[in-house]
Structure to design on (556 residues):
């Protein structure tokens, strides 16, 4: 198929030979090659998630009803305990993603101006926690944050381990690479000429930042906040191992329903709720920041 | 940028590097410290905690499970990602970006929700939880990582090269194997390495899907940590860190590929 199709595309292309890919619509080969990925997604994500949705509509030992209804959702929303868990999840995600953003933005900006050796070392250092995984990182934070530990004693009597702040510190640490690297792409795309022009017209560093760098980096800010917020909302390891028993989030609530109370239906309900919260947050951020980008 | 701002930026970056490496550094520190509990100041250099790891066959069993799942899921995910990235890069059909976004999608689903969904479909389909179910879940979880790196390899690939091979009489298969594959190989290897690492260290996806005999290394270490943390666990974590550091340098120095961004 592709030879004929390619000929047609080649002839109809204005410059004859372009550097662009030469197939203009999905051919047999394209469809065939996309099949395994599509199959993986359908069989191991879409069908399982549909089962989760179905489970969330099913009766269970705690919430008894006939057939399939939204009773599990009204049950969860009717209890202030679960509302608090929901609110805590959103609050921790908002705190961690904004702190990670505030720490990451200056770093991403500074990367524009430092020698390559330092910027390379920086990228390697911030990505290492992602690659070495929760086993290393969580154990490290457990030691650092414990009472009498290096950081625990630094902040005096403040008990960090087993508190919401313990979760926030570890979560910021984990989010940093995602935030920094999605900002770097945009910040490094801002041409020096723009800044030179502004400088030659008398704009100081603050004005150059506010009028050029900040507005032009809005797309990067959007993706940094979306990635940060969604990773933080769904995070399980830090809240479970660094938070106290009272610091339950939606993710740790799911694990409690599965491992402790064996209630798959309520675990499913909370999972769908978690996905809904994430989607709502991503949607809101996109709307707000794209409105800002236009304005 | 003036010199003062530049110096300030450098100091700030070094501070963030220290913050980023802090937890890993303290784990290594406590794994070679002879003090039996932590946190405690440095007493004496020792390797006895590493020797203690050798006396725990269940950890080796778990590490073997992790390795099998990581290599299998990363291999399958890399092949799927290569085919998808090739298809997405060579054609410009409308909706191409939507398809790419959908395939990267699992990255945005919380790992614990993925784990629960696979657990519930396995329950609904009456499947027993074994290394195959775990590998399937991990393949889904790591495929987007492999796909992103492979796609970025294809974004620099000139498809005229493939077209030239085809016009000189190479079959589609030959062109793919002799022209396309060698040119995107570094990205494929990088995608495989990242996928394998992300599978090897993962806890939330595996958590619901393992039984005592199929426990992965993170699952069994975290189960141990529920009751206590001791320097032996720090030694296990340091060994995992060692693997991650080697992988990082391999990606950065040998393949010269950045993994996130």
């Amino acid at each position: 198929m592709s030879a004929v199709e390619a000929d047609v595309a080649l002839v109809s292309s204005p410059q004859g030979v372009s550097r662009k890919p030469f197939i203009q619509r999905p051919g047999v080969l394209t469809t065939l090659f996309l099949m395994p990925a599509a199959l993986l997604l359908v069989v191991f994500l879409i069908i399982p998630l549909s089962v989760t949705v179905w489970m969330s509509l099913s009766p269970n030992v705690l919430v008894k009803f006939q057939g399939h209804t939204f009773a599990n959702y009204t049950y969860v929303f009717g209890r202030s305990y679960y509302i608090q868990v929901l609110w805590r999840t959103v609050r921790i995600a908002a705190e961690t993603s904004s702190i990670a953003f505030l720490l990451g933005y200056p770093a991403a900006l500074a990367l524009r101006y430092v020698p390559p050796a330092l910027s390379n070392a920086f990228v390697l250092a911030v990505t290492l926690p992602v690659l070495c995984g929760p086993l290393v990182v969580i154990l490290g934070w457990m030691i650092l944050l414990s009472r009498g530990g290096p950081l625990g004693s630094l902040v005096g009597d403040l008990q960090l381990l087993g508190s919401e702040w313990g979760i926030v510190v570890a979560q910021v640490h984990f989010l940093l690479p995602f935030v920094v690297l999605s900002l770097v792409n945009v910040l490094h795309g801002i041409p020096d000429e723009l800044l030179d022009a502004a400088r030659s017209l008398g704009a100081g560093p603050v004005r150059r930042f506010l009028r050029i760098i900040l507005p032009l980096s809005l797309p990067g800010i959007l993706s940094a906040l979306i990635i940060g917020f969604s990773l933080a909302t769904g995070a399980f390891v830090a809240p479970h191992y660094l938070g106290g028993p009272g610091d339950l989030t939606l993710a740790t609530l799911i694990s409690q329903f599965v491992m402790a109370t064996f209630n798959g239906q309520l675990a499913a309900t909370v999972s769908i709720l978690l996905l809904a919260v994430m989607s709502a947050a991503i949607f809101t951020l996109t709307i707000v920041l794209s409105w800002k980008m236009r304005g | 940028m003036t010199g003062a701002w530049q110096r300030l930026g450098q100091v700030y970056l070094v501070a963030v590097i220290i913050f980023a490496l802090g937890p890993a550094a303290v784990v290594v520190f406590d794994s070679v410290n002879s003090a039996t509990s932590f946190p405690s100041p440095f007493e004496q250099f020792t390797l006895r905690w590493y020797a203690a790891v050798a006396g725990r066959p269940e950890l080796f069993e778990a590490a073997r499970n992790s390795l099998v799942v990581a290599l299998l899921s990363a291999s399958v995910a890399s092949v799927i990602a290569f085919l998808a990235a090739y298809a997405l890069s060579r054609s410009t059909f409308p909706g191409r970006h939507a398809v790419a976004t959908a395939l990267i999608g699992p990255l945005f689903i919380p790992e614990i929700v993925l784990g629960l969904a696979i657990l519930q479909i396995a329950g609904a389909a009456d499947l027993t939880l074994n290394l195959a179910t775990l590998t399937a879940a991990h393949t889904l979880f790591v495929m987007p990582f492999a796909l992103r790196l492979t796609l970025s390899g294809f974004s620099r690939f000139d498809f005229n090269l493939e077209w030239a091979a085809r016009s000189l009489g190479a079959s589609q298969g030959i062109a793919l194997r002799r022209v396309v594959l060698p040119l995107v190989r570094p990205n494929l290897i990088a995608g495989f390495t990242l996928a394998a690492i992300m599978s090897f260290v993962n806890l939330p996806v595996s958590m619901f899907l393992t039984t005592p005999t199929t426990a992965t290394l993170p699952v069994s270490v975290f189960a141990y940590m529920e009751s206590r943390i001791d320097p032996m666990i720090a030694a296990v974590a340091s060994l995992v860190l060692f693997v991650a550091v080697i992988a990082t340098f391999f990606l950065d120095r040998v393949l010269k590929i950045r993994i996130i961004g």
Notes: The CA atoms of residues 31 and 38 of chain A lie 10 Å apart.
